[in-house]
Design goal:
Distance between the termini: 50 Å
CATH class: Alpha Beta
Structural class: alpha/beta
CATH topology: TIM Barrel
Number of helices: 12
CATH superfamily: Aldolase class I
Shape: globular
Helix content: 40-55%
Strand content: 5-15%
Oligomer: single chain
């Protein structure tokens, strides 16, 4: 099985909007996508970490994918989060996502039985999913959530599978990422999983990034990569440093509640996260407003 899929560019892992009763607000999802579609984003990760997929049941996950696919134009990719702890369930969810029109699937590794998730076990997991998938597979390395950092050796090994097209790496170990670029199959895409290290990762050959920042600053996120490619390194450095406090605020500092509050402040729909996550309190919201203002996103 072989797929010709380009992962060059900047993608955003979109949020799943909920109303005040914590039901999925499908209309608001379409409205957000309409705004993002006006930018030069290469596409979207639907049901990634920012999409709170772990709080959605299977039917809800498929409904979100269906709504998103209808709102995403053909020139932008839809990458569906299809992870599950078991190989069989991951294959099933990937098949269903493909049937709904996903262009690719992104799969975070199983992690509940951490001590048993050895390199051979994880290699067998990803290979088993890729062999059955009707769409390309993107590996999702997510150490903050899984407590595991997929090794360069594993990623290099998997890079040679014709249906495993890349990795979104949120670990932030740029030395490891560069080693993967150096040793992996030339067709394998290494993508920065955070705006914290997108800009430096481009220097050693990352193809782009999947950035939470791009939810609220899509144009600036795209510009980071464009400035690097154009050789405007000083401008790119200045933009990176200006965006850094904003990205830290909506990820490690304030989390999903902060990202959704920022969306609300900037003309998108954020709404509440689903419990047990909580909305941002007033004091932190004021801090966030100040960060967005100093970063030039909020007047």
């Amino acid at each position: 099985m072989s797929h010709d899929l380009s992962l060059q560019g900047v993608f955003t892992p979109i949020t799943t909007p909920f109303d005040e009763k914590e039901q999925i607000a499908h209309g608001k999802l379409c409205e957000n996508l309409e705004l993002w579609n006006r930018t030069e984003l290469a596409g979207y990760v639907v049901l990634g970490s920012n999409g709170e997929w772990v709080f959605l049941d299977e039917s809800e996950r498929m409904d979100v994918l269906r709504t998103a696919r209808e709102a995403i134009p053909p020139d932008k990719l839809m990458i569906a989060g299809t992870a599950s702890e078991s190989t069989a369930k991951t294959i099933e969810l990937t098949e269903r996502a493909a049937a709904l029109g996903a262009d690719a699937a992104i799969v975070v590794n199983p992690s509940y039985y951490k001590s048993q998730m050895t390199l051979p076990v994880l290699a067998d997991f990803y290979t088993g999913v890729a062999e059955r998938a009707a769409v390309p597979i993107l590996i999702y390395n997510l150490p903050p959530a899984t407590g595991m950092d997929l090794s360069a050796d594993l990623l290099v090994q998997l890079s040679h599978h014709p249906n495993i097209v890349g990795v979104k790496d949120t670990g932030g170990n740029v030395t490891k990422m560069a080693d993967v670029v150096r040793r992996a199959d030339p067709s394998f895409h290494v993508m920065a999983g955070s705006a914290n290290f997108l800009y430096p990762s481009l220097a050693f050959g990352a193809s782009g990034g999947v950035l939470a920042l791009a939810n609220i600053a899509p144009r600036e996120s795209v510009a980071l990569r464009r400035l690097f490619l154009e050789g405007k390194l000083d401008e790119g450095k200045a933009l990176h440093l200006r965006m850094l406090p904003i990205n830290l605020a909506i990820t490690s500092r304030f989390g999903i509640g902060g990202l959704k509050a920022a969306l609300d402040l900037l003309g998108y729909y954020g709404g509440p996260p689903r419990r047990p996550l909580r909305p941002l309190g007033q004091e932190k919201r004021r801090e966030l407003e100040d960060i967005l203002r100093r970063g030039g996103l909020l007047a």
